Structure formats: C-alpha cells, structure tokens
Amino acid sequence: MRLYIFLTAIAGMLLPAGECNNKSTGQKFKGRLEVAGICMNYTISVIEGNPGTDVIVANWTDEVTNKQYTNVFRLGNPCDFPSSLKQGDEFYFVIDTSKGKECAVCMAYYPTPSKSLPIKVVK
User: Fold this and answer.
1) C-alpha dist (Å) from residue 118 to 1, 6, 56, 64
2) Which run of H or E residues covers position 120?
3) Which of 26, 28, 30 is nearest to 89 (CA)?
4) How many CA atoms lie within 13 A of 7 on its CB side?
5) What is the pLDDT of residues 84-108, one digit of tens each?
6) Cβ density class 95-123: b for 16+ within 10 Å, e for less
7) Average pLDDT per run of 10 along the chain, which is 123 residues long?
8) Does residue 49 contact residue 114 with C-beta atoms inside 8 Å?
9) DSSP letters along 31-85, please?
10) For the chain, what is the mean pLDDT?
C-alpha cells in the first residue's frame, strides 16, 4: 500500500496538470466541491455544463466513505483554489491551462478520481 501511495504521488508530480486538449477552455461550468480531502486532495463534480468525458470521470466511488459521485474530477491546481470554498459549496469555474501558482502541498493520501483538471473559480 505504501508503494502504491508513493508511486501515485510521484506520478502526480511528473504528469503535467494543465495538459488537456479540451475545446471547452474559456467556457463556464458550475461545480460543487464534493470531497475536501486532506492535503488538497479535492474532488469536484460538474453540475452544469459538459467539459467532456476526456477530462471527467462519469462515476466514481470514494473508497473511504463508499459514497458515489457522478461527473467528477480531481483538482489539478490546488495552489490556485480559493481557501474560502468549503466542502458542499457550489461555484462557477473555467478550465485554466495557464501556468498557475506554485506552492507546497503535503503528500498525504486521500482517494480522488483518476482524471484531474486545472480550473479557475469565477463569479
């Protein structure tokens, strides 16, 4: 299990968070912060709009709570996410492939969907 967590953490650091060939960049979507896991392991659901199946997971189960979610993704740019948003909050966002802020994020594990998406929260 420790090896899995370590490899997952390394893969997350090596894979560019902002790479997505999605035509919906700039389009506004409505989301909800479903799971505010430890160390910014955030799961967000898309509740209005459709960014495409290549960037969201249609069905995902949180293995800690066994709760099921639809149309979700892992937050791809935790350093740019507003700290004022809490679990259950709804907000509007756009896909943001620009180079975001860099910050230190701890490496503790909490399960998240397999697909990540860098976003910018908008009003």
Assistant:
1) 27, 22, 12, 24
2) strand 119-122
3) 30
4) 4
5) 999 999 999 999 988 777 888 899 9
6) bbbeebeeeeeeeebbbbbebbbbbbbee
7) 47 43 71 97 97 96 98 95 96 90 89 96 90
8) no
9) EEEEEEEGGGEEEEEEEES---TTTSEEEEE-TTT--EEEEEEEES-GGGS-TT-
10) 85
Q: Which burial class, exposed, middle or buried, applies to 80 when counting CB atoms under 10 A from its CB (0-12, 13-18, 19+)? A: middle
Dig out the tokens for 114 from the structure: 């397999």
Asked if 116 and 75 count as a contact pair (C-beta separation under 8 A), the reply is yes
Share of the chain above pLDDT 90, in %: 71
46 bridge partner residues: 31
